[in-house]
From TrEMBL, chains A, B:
List of residues binding Fe cation: 89, 110, 124
Binding note for cofactor: Binds 1 Mn(2+) or Fe(2+) ion per subunit. Binds 1 zinc ion per subunit.
Source organism: Fictibacillus macauensis ZFHKF-1
The protein's name in its UniProt record: FUR family transcriptional regulator
Gene Ontology process terms (BP): negative regulation of DNA-templated transcription; regulation of secondary metabolite biosynthetic process
GO molecular function, one term: DNA-binding transcription factor activity
UniProt cofactor(s): Mn(2+); Fe(2+); Zn(2+)
Domain of life: Bacteria
Keyword Transcription regulation: yes
PANTHER family cross-referenced by the UniProt entry: FERRIC UPTAKE REGULATION PROTEIN (PTHR33202:SF1), ZINC UPTAKE REGULATION PROTEIN (PTHR33202)
InterPro entries registered for this protein in UniProt: FUR, Fur_C, WH-like_DNA-bd_sf, WH_DNA-bd_sf
Family per similarity comment: Belongs to the Fur family.
Subcellular compartments: Cytoplasm
GO terms under cellular component: cytoplasm
Length: 137, 137
DNA sequence: CCAATGAATAGTAACGATTACGATTTAGCT
DNA sequence: AGCTAAATCGTAATCGTTACTATTCATTGG
C-alpha cells in the first residue's frame, strides 16, 4: 500500500480527492510506525494550522475501513500505521515508546486445537510489546 | 484467587479492610467474566447507592496491580475479571457481548524464534474474540 | 468555463471513560 | 476513647473521540 494506490482506492469507492487526504496519507508513508491522531495533527500543523479533529478522525477511520491503514489501541489511544505490504497474515512486535514495529511470522491461531468451545470466533489479537533498539538506550 | 485470599493479600500489603472492597471482590467472584467499572457500580447500586467513581477505579487498579484481577481493554473500555486459578500461563477466548471467557492452553511466545530483532520484549497480548454459545443465539 | 450539488472541512460543543481534588469519614492502632 | 493515615464521597477536571452546523470545495454536466 502506498499513497498513490490509496488515493486510487478512495476514488474507486466514491470518495473525493483532497489535498488534506493526500497529505495525511503521506504522513503515514513517511512514518512506518503506529502513530496517533494527535501525531498526525502535530505533523501537519505547519501545513494546516487549523486542521480539525473531525477531519482527522473521520479520515483515519475511513482509511482504516478501506484497509489502507492498520489500527491498534495502546494505552486507551487509537494508533494507526500504513498497512504492511506483506501479503501473508502476520503479527507485530511494537515499540511502546515510538510505535515502530517488526513483523513476526506466522499466527498462533494456526496451532490452535479445533474449536470445540461453543464460541463463534470472529477475530483475534496478538501483539508483542517492548522497546526498539533506539528507544532502549 | 478468591475473596478471602484477596483480602488477606490486601492486608498483607498494608491496605485496609473495608466492606466496599469485600463487596467489590464478591462481585467478581460471582461473575467469572470481564466486567467494567460501570458494571461494578450497577451491581452494587442497591447496596451502595452513592458509590464513588474514585473508589471504584482506585480499587480496581489496586486489585489489578496486586494480581487479584486480570485486566483487558475492549472497545476503549477497561474490563476486569478475577484472576484464573490456573497456575500455568495461558490466554483467553473472550465473548464480546457478555465478557465470558474460555481458557486457551499454551502461549504463542513459546513457539517464537529466538529474538534477534533488537527489541527488548516486555510483554505480549494474545486474545481471541467471538461470541459464546448463549450470546450467539 | 461555469453553475449546481453533495461531500469534505472548520470550529466548536458534546460525550463517555477515567483521573484528580478537597472535605469528610472510617479502619486500625495505642 | 482518641489519634492518624487511609479510604471514601461528591464533584470537577481531563483526555480521547464523536457529533453538529455553517461554510468551503471537488466533481460533474451543461
Amino acid at each position: 500500500m502506498d499513497v498513490t494506490k490509496a488515493i486510487h482506492l478512495l476514488k474507486e469507492k466514491g470518495f473525493k480527492y483532497t489535498d488534506k487526504r493526500k497529505d495525511m496519507l503521506q504522513v503515514f508513508a513517511n512514518e512506518l510506525r503506529y502513530i496517533s491522531a494527535k501525531d498526525v495533527q502535530e505533523t501537519l500543523k505547519p501545513h494546516y494550522p487549523g486542521l480539525s479533529f473531525d477531519t482527522i478522525y473521520r479520515n483515519l477511520s475511513t482509511f482504516s475501513e478501506l484497509g489502507i491503514l492498520e489500527e491498534t489501541e495502546l494505552d486507551g489511544e487509537k494508533k494507526f500505521r500504513f498497512k504492511c505490504p506483506t501479503s501473508e497474515h502476520h503479527h507485530h512486535l511494537i515499540c511502546l515508546t515510538c510505535g515502530k514495529t517488526k513483523e513476526v511470522a506466522g499466527c498462533p491461531m494456526e496451532q490452535l486445537p479445533v474449536n470445540d468451545s461453543g464460541f463463534t470466533v470472529t477475530g483475534h489479537k496478538f501483539e508483542i510489546y517492548g522497546y526498539c533498539q533506539a528507544c532502549s538506550l
